[in-house]
Amino acid sequence: MNREGIPGRVARLRERLRREGADVFVLVVTERYNGESMGYLSGFRGSSGALVVSEDRNYLLTDGRYALQARAESPFDSIILDGGSLQDKTAEILRQGGWKTAGFEAERLSVSFFSALEPSVPAWKDCSGLLPALRRRKDEGEAAIIRKAADLAYDTYREVLETVREGMTEKEFNALLEYNLRKNGAEGGWKNNSFIVASGERSALPHGVPTGRAFRKGDIVTVDFGATVEGYMSDLTRNFSLGPLSPQGRDIQDTLLEAHLRAAEAIRPGAECRAVDAVARDVVTRRGWGKHFPHGLGHGLGLEVHEAPRLSPHSRDVLEEGDVVTVEPGIYIQGWGGMRIEDDYLVTAGGAVCLSGGKGREAPAL
Fold first, then answer.
1. Given 115, 135, 155, which residue is the final one in a domain?
2. Which of 74, 224, 247, 355 is the most exposed place for a label (fewest CB within 10 A)?
3. Nearest to 238 by CA among 281, 195, 275
4. Are strands 24-29 and 101-104 parallel, antiparallel or unpaired?
5. Of the residues 86, 117, 135, which one is the last residue of a structural domain?
6. What pLDDT, on the 0 to 100 scale, is given for residue 2?
7. Is 330 found in the same domain as 263?
8. Angle, alpha carbons 181-184-188 (nearest 5°)
9. Residue 153 and residue 158: Cα distance in Å, rounded?
């Protein structure tokens, strides 16, 4: 993960802490949980550690397994545990600091860990929304990494597509895709999420995980996939068919293409997320498929595959410059199948910039 943006991120964190009335912030990672925010703020990507950030101090606490890694990845002052627990050492640092009010993430800190820290500071303030808000705004470097992850994912998908044949199973396709992503330079697919490979009637499942079902002549296959590069993820959905698309399949594809492009045109700073969703939903409804579009239009993307903001009829989010969001209208018909078309967009002052290239949106017939 690029260290160049860390000073700016820490400065923005401190500014927000002042607004919250907190003079220190504590972030904890256990067994990789919450590791995305740890990496974003400090650069450190180990599986266990804690950050303590005040107006004039930045501490990174971890154990001996990560002594070299912590110093290589992070500009923070490293404190390496020499026996004892992470909870006890973090509490000791807080006591020594003499801070009055500590910000923490109630949504991401276990009760037992918090109980160990609580006596070390007089007052605590839940700042669970602080890091997600900071992470929303992607800088040029972050956007470039997501673009790289999208290009790598799409090129690898096209490579695997050349191997498709009748009788290949969903699991085989998925395994080849994941293997080739790593071979081609990705850290892997998505962290903590599996790809979607759904064929034939199973493509009516928006979240159809790969099974042993074999591809058959006439199948539509929906593939929702991405790559991780330097911790950042891309998220694309493409479709292909074994044989020509049916007239209904062509109509659904054309509907989704129109809905996708119209929604992308509506993306700009200040746009309500539900209004962008409505643009795509109106197209799908006008063309007769409205009841078959059961999910929101998209979501934020970055260090996690699902982040703020949400593009949905129920969202109260407003798009901001620097957001990266997916646009993924879908149509699903029980007993027949379904399709979805997804790309990743950066919100800029001038509108939406497609980070995933927009290539291959029309389903090829294999």
1. 135
2. 247
3. 195
4. parallel
5. 135
6. 64
7. yes
8. 35
9. 9
Q: Mean pLDDT over residues 38-50, rounded?
A: 95
* C-alpha–C-alpha distance, residues 150 and 231, integer Å: 13
Q: Give SS3 for 319.
A: coil
81 contacts: CB under 8 Å, gap ≥ 6: 61, 62, 63, 64, 89
Is residue 315 a contact partner of residue 322, using CB atoms and an 8 Å limit?
A: no
**pLDDT tens sequence across 275-329:** 999 999 999 999 999 999 999 999 999 999 999 999 999 999 999 999 999 999 9
Task: Name residues whose C-beta falls within 8 Å of residue 129's C-beta, 6 or more positions apart in sequence.
Answer: none
**How many residues does the structure list for the chain?**
366
- Claim to verify: residue 180 and residue 72 sit in the same structural domain: no
Q: Which helix (H) or strand (E) holds 17?
A: helix 6-20
3-state secondary structure string across 158-203: HHHHCCCCCCCEHHHHHHHHHHHHHHCCCCECCCCCCCEEEEHHHH
DSSP 114-155: HHHHGGGSSEEEE-TTHHHHHHHS--HHHHHHHHHHHHHHHH
Domain enclosing residue 31, as ranges: 6-135
| 163 contact partners, CB below 8 Å, separation of at least 6 | 176
For residue 11, the domain's CATH number is 3.40.350.10
DSSP structural state of residue 28: E
Residues 52 and 145 in one domain: no
Q: Are 57 and 172 within one domain?
A: no
Residue 77 · residue 97 · CB < 8 Å: no
Q: Are 328 and 340 in contact (CB under 8 A)?
A: yes
236 in Cβ contact with 162 (< 8 Å): no
Establish if 362 belongs to a structural domain. Answer: no
Whether residue 343 contacts residue 358, with contact meaning beta carbons closer than 8 Å, is answered with yes
Beta strands in the chain (DSSP E): 24-29, 49-54, 58-62, 77-80, 101-104, 123-126, 196-199, 220-225, 228-229, 232-233, 236-241, 298-300, 307-311, 324-327, 330-333, 337-340, 343-348, 351-354
The answer to whether the bond into 122 is cis (omega within 30° of 0) is: no
| The amino acid at 141 | G
